[in-house]
Amino acid sequence: MSYKITVLPGDGIGPEITKEAVKLLDAVGETYGHNFEFQYADIGGVAVDKQGTPLPEQTVQHCESCDAILLGAVGGPKWDDETPDRKPETGLLGIRKQLNLFANLRPAIVYDSLLDASSLKRDVLDGADLLIVRELTGGLYFGKPRERREGEHGLEVIDTLHYTEAEIERIIRKAFDLARLRNKQLTSVDKANVLENSRLWREVANRVAADYPDVELSHMLVDNAAMQLVNDPKQFDTIVTENMFGDILSDIASMITGSLGMLPSASLSADGPGLYEPVHGSAPDIAGQNIANPLATLASCAMLLRYSLHLKEEADAVEEAILKTLREGYRTGDIAAIGEATVSTSEMGDIVCQQILSASIKQSQ
Ligand SMILES: NC(=O)c1ccc[n+]([C@@H]2O[C@H](COP(=O)([O-])OP(=O)(O)OC[C@H]3O[C@@H](n4cnc5c(N)ncnc54)[C@H](O)[C@@H]3O)[C@@H](O)[C@H]2O)c1
Ligand SMILES: CC(C)[C@H](C(=O)O)[C@@H](O)C(=O)O
Ligand SMILES: [Mg+2]
């Protein structure tokens, strides 16, 4: 089969890690007989520099006319002084909104061979495997009004936390569907002791639960959830939450895997192409040094194969290749123990590709 993938490398370490992802998809194509056609487009700071906007129209067109989108990261100090409409992050938020990518799936898995990479205790981590389902196109990120204005007592600023019942219901239903495929436990995270938004969120979750009698629904306040994620991550199976809470909780959850460089994500709409990106950012502090961990991006490719292309065997093979690479002891700096040997970004990419290619040689023998 032939598939069209739009690649948005973006800024900082984005180009380094997406290069490894393209290499990996080519290895998958070679092994399983698929043809991946890559079309590259600009987003974020690089697009501001080249085209004067973080989300050029042509980038949107490429994204709308493909099977799946692979994104590196956007942003960096170079664009700190840009106006809001020229900020790199505006490009990322823009593409999420324009493609209606309301469901953001952020799995956090503890790899047995990385138990010592985390600063958390082994027995707290061992066996933890959770999925954060983050609402991605509403809430504080997009609510209007959003403004800075002169008030009676000087400058004042407004951001608006806005959700419609329909927006809440579609993400809650998506999370129930996903929990059903996992261990059938859904924790809805909110701030219902304070926010009217969260009170509606809770009501909707309770109402929708009647359609999923096989899934156990519980509620947790977000401040407690942040603590529980590092205290006892094994209590969670599937978590559903609104946009801002999900952003923060997913970075916290990355610590149970050992590094932010390990966390993949999928952003899905009801029907169009999905967007796949690591949870981490453009890591300007290590950009251009070939030391970033590409595994979050490679694991995002597994999600791309699974959710957008429906290639289950290929997705499993990528996840297995990552597992094997870690079990064989290969480490980038962020997941290495003190004094442990490390590999570069491109070496890590080569090793994972090699696992795919050699697994297929074994199968055909
Ligand atoms: N999806 C995205 O594109 C995205 C996500 C988060 C942040 N950002 C942007 O990235 C820029 C930098 O943000 P930040 O520094 O707060 O967060 P960051 O995620 O870029 O980096 C946080 C820390 O994690 C490390 N890190 C991140 N990814 C890594 C990897 N693959 N391998 C090894 N170490 C890694 C970095 O070196 C840094 O020390 C900002 O402009 C921010 O808005 C973009
Ligand atoms: C860069 C930023 C806009 C983005 C977000 O807040 O959603 C990032 O932190 C993420 O987690 O994908
Ligand atoms: Mg984030």
Short description:
The protein has helices at residues 14-32, 45-51, 57-64, 88-98, 122-125, 165-180, 196-209, 222-231, 243-257, 295-308, 312-327, 345-364; strands spanning 2-10, 35-40, 68-73, 103-109, 129-135, 143-151, 154-160, 185-190, 216-221, 238-241, 264-268, 274-278. The chain is globular and about 65 Å long. The chain is of the alpha/beta class and 365 residues long.
Tags for this entry?
Isopropylmalate Dehydrogenase; EC 1.1.1.85; globular; cytoplasm; binds 3-isopropylmalic acid; two-stranded antiparallel ribbon; single chain; binds magnesium ion; magnesium; 365 residues; binds nicotinamide-adenine-dinucleotide; branched-chain amino acid biosynthesis; alpha/beta; 12 strands; IsoCit/isopropylmalate_DH_CS; 10-stranded mixed β-sheet; 21% strand
How would you describe what is shown here?
The structure is a single chain. With 365 residues, the chain is an alpha/beta fold. The protein has 2 domains: 1-104 and 264-365, Isopropylmalate Dehydrogenase; 118-257, Isopropylmalate Dehydrogenase (3-Layer(aba) Sandwich), CATH 3.40.718.10. The protein is built from 12 helices and 12 strands. The strands form 2 sheets. Strands 2-1-3-12-11-4-5-10-8-9 form a 10-stranded mixed sheet, with helices on both faces. It has a two-stranded antiparallel ribbon with strand order 6-7. A hairpin with a 5-residue loop joins strand 11 and strand 12 (274-278). It is globular and about 65 Å long. It starts with a strand and ends with a helix. 3-isopropylmalic acid (IPM) binds at residues 75, 89, 92-93, 247, 279, 281. This is 3-isopropylmalate dehydrogenase. Belongs to the isocitrate and isopropylmalate dehydrogenases family. LeuB type 1 subfamily.
